[in-house]
Sequence to fold (253 residues):
Amino acid sequence: MVFLYLYPMQEQTQIFGIRAIIEAINSGEIIDKVFLQKGLKGDLFTELEFVLRQKSINSSYVPVEKLNRLTKGNHQGAVAQISPIGFHDLESLITEVIESGKIPLFLLLDQLSDVRNFGAIIRTAECTGVNGIIIQKKGGAPVNGDTIKTSAGAVFKVPICKVDHIKDAVFYMQSSGIKVIAATEKTDNTLYDISFKEPCAIIMGSEDRGINPSILKVVDDKAKLPLLGEIESLNVSVACGAFLYEAVRQRLS
Fold:
């Protein structure tokens, strides 16, 4: 038996039922994340796991109680969240921005996990003229109802790209003449020592561990915010706002 139930959940849609999710993926539906029941077995469940790996779709294994809270029907051990937005192709977006004559300003988020931080960053990105936001397919915050609400609708105005690995996006940007700047405390330079006037992309790290060390090794520049108090860090969305508005200040001056 195939179950296919769609209903709104904070401006988002859910699909549940293993076969229904497989069919949705194969039909080209944009799946943001799939929740799978821990310990579940069976040929159909194994087929779903294979499809998720093949399509590089973000998934996580959760207790059955979480799935019960997410659905109003028989989930069969799998619940998928359909993204409320379509994602852009990174290469096409970079080409489009460069050909428009604008000085590119991109934002890369290295596995940011909090949806409210994500939404706040998207809102600031829209206000500062960011040409696109790049996120990783796995490990980051989903685009869901909380993201939409926190972004004040900006999620529908700023192009968002999903890539397999942030490092690949870094290399592609560098090959396209875009300087990549990491926001990290692991440097002596402050953001006021860095030029944002040329084509550039700013990388912000996750809330708990910052930017992946392997990515820090390949960026063009690193910069930090001067912190004058006793607390050693800022919320990532606040820090991102400071970096983006420094880029705006330099470009307007």
